[in-house]
Amino acid sequence: MGQFWTPIDIRANSVHPGPIITPMLDPGSDEETHQLLMSRIPLRHYGEPENIAFGVLFLASDESCFMTGSELVIDGGYTAW
After folding, report:
1. DSSP codes of every residue in the chain
2. Are 7 and 68 within 8 A, CB to CB?
3. I need a surface site. Which of 23, 25, 45, 60 has the fewest CB within 10 A?
4. For the chain, what percent of residues have pLDDT higher than 70?
5. Taking a C-beta distance cutoff of 8 angstroms, is the pair 58, 30 a contact?
6. pLDDT tens column, 37-54
């Protein structure tokens, strides 16, 4: 098990986003890729940047004060499929 820097109040968590609507992922640019991704996202839509921001806000808040060593997956179920 890795060492967490809890003696000096440093928590280590990570965020793992799925397909998010950004200029890098333009769903209109390639219909074949769009259909393939949609078939693999259980929620059947791309995420928005705000979806990731809310997860990061949670990790930065006091509400996550007892979390460390966690992976926050925000992907519409993509990795669970």
Report:
1. -PPP-GGGT----EEEE-SB-BTTB-TTT-HHHHHHHHHH-TT-S-B-HHHHHHHHHHHHSGGGTT--S-EEEESTTGGG-
2. no
3. 23
4. 89
5. no
6. 899 999 999 999 999 999
Distance CA 58, CA 65 (A): 10
Per-residue pLDDT at 28: 62
d(CA 56, CA 63): 12
Tell me the pLDDT of the chain averaged across its residues: 88
Distance of CA 35 to the CA centre of its chain: 21
Better-predicted residue by pLDDT, 8 or 62: 62
